[in-house]
Design goal:
Number of domains: 2
Protein name: Alanine/ornithine racemase family PLP-dependent enzyme
Pfam family, one: Ala_racemase_N
Strand order of the largest sheet: 8-7-6-5-4-3-2-10-9
InterPro entries: Ala_racemase, Ala_racemase_N, PLP-binding_barrel
Cofactor: pyridoxal 5'-phosphate
CATH architecture of the largest domain: Alpha-Beta Barrel
Shape: elongated
CATH topology of the largest domain: TIM Barrel
CATH superfamily of the largest domain: Alanine racemase
GO molecular function, one term: pyridoxal phosphate binding
CATH class of the largest domain: Alpha Beta
Radius of gyration: 24 Å
Number of strands: 17
Distance between the termini: 17 Å
Helix content: 25-40%
Length: 357
């Protein structure tokens, strides 16, 4: 069985590094745990770091977090579905919202559960995913400000997740101005301006963050230390908290070009020859015990730089190991660097073993 390994020391190092960065700037922050897909082993590692606030987009994951540590503040980070209202109020202390009708339902359900449910109003800032349009914000706020059992914890925005719009100082200043506008209009104070995700950390490090932006939600930077502006590792952090390992189950010299009438494979792709595929050429191929059911090859990179990915089927991954300096044998394990989406696939698979190093 293939397995994914979490490096405990690297995770701890990254958490302490981020904690220092945020505390020194008086920024509150929470860990986005959705990449862990509710895995109790890994969630325990997060909670053991001393995390007081965890964000997720799956109610079942928030339920698991509450079962492990009921005192952790849980945040549901997408607009709630009508059918999920009762569970969201039960397992999420805070939810991100964009619809008045949904907030009314949250208010009614919180009353039934004898709770105060906190909400963050998400504002559209150009990425075109969730968010109230800026011109509608004052009216929107006025409709919900006096709802019982609801506490408006703050405003926020999401960037880079759908259209790839990057955060910049102008957009975060605009978010800060929305805070000022609402506070002046309704004579209230907004605790959170949640404009920060992993992609905004480089702006913070360059002191390009408006001071009003005082709340971050961080997942990718914690686990991968990615500077999403440069593609490099954030200085002082560790990039490989996760590694994938898969076992070789076959090694055979085979032709480079398939024989027979060609159609689509299981993934809907057809074989295309290139200049390196000449009739009569062959390569030493290794088959690993992992496939498309568990991962997507484009998000994996072998640590052995002389290995080339060929293709994958539902349960097997084929590699060209011809040029490797290592003499692989059956039963050997090949390790891979993993990108964020690659880890999401792997951690969501019940067929991939999860291990802590």
């Amino acid at each position: 069985m293939a397995f994914i390994k979490l490096d405990q020391k690297k995770l701890q190092h990254n958490y302490k590094h981020l904690q220092h960065l945020f505390q020194s700037r008086n920024i509150e922050w929470g860990v986005v745990s959705k990449i862990l897909c509710g895995n109790k082993l890994f969630l325990n590692e997060i909670i053991n770091l001393g995390v007081k606030e965890i964000h997720d987009s799956r109610i079942s994951n928030l339920k698991t977090i509450k079962e492990i540590a009921s005192d952790v503040q849980t945040v549901y980070i997408k607009p709630p579905a009508k059918r999920s209202i009762a569970k969201i109020v039960k397992y999420a202390d805070v939810s991100f919202n964009t619809e008045i009708d949904t907030i009314i339902m949250l208010s009614e359900e919180a009353g039934k559960q004898n709770k105060i449910h906190k909400i963050v109003i998400m504002i559209e800032m150009g990425d075109l995913r969730e968010g109230v349009m800026g011109e509608d914000l004052i009216h929107f706020y006025g409709q919900i400000i006096n709802l019982p059992h609801i506490e408006i914890r703050g405003i926020g925005t999401n960037l880079n997740c759908l259209s790839g719009v990057m955060p910049n100082q102008d957009k975060l200043i605009q978010l800060s101005l929305y805070k000022q506008l609402i506070e002046a209009k309704f004579n209230i104070s907004i605790p959170w301006v949640s404009g920060g995700t992993s992609v905004a950390i480089p702006l913070m490090l360059k002191n390009a963050r408006p001071m009003a932006v005082n709340h971050f939600r961080v997942g990718e930077a914690l686990f991968f230390a990615n500077d999403l502006f440069t593609g490099q590792t954030i200085e002082g952090m560790e990039s490989e908290v996760f590694k994938l390992y898969a076992e070789i189950i076959e090694i055979t010299e085979k032709p480079d070009i398939p024989s027979g009438d060609l159609g689509e494979n299981v993934a809907g792709n057809t074989f295309e020859s290139n200049e390196n595929h000449d009739l009569g050429t062959s390569s030493l191929r290794a088959i690993l015990d992992i496939g498309l059911l568990d991962m997507q090859p484009q998000y994996l990179e072998p640590h052995d730089e002389n290995i080339t990915m060929i293709d994958a089927s539902s349960d097997m991954l084929v590699l060209d190991i011809t040029n490797s300096e290592k003499k692989y044998k059956i039963g050997d394990v090949i390790s891979f660097k993993i990108r964020y989406m690659g880890a999401l696939y792997l951690l969501n698979s019940d067929y991939i073993e999860k291990i802590i190093a």
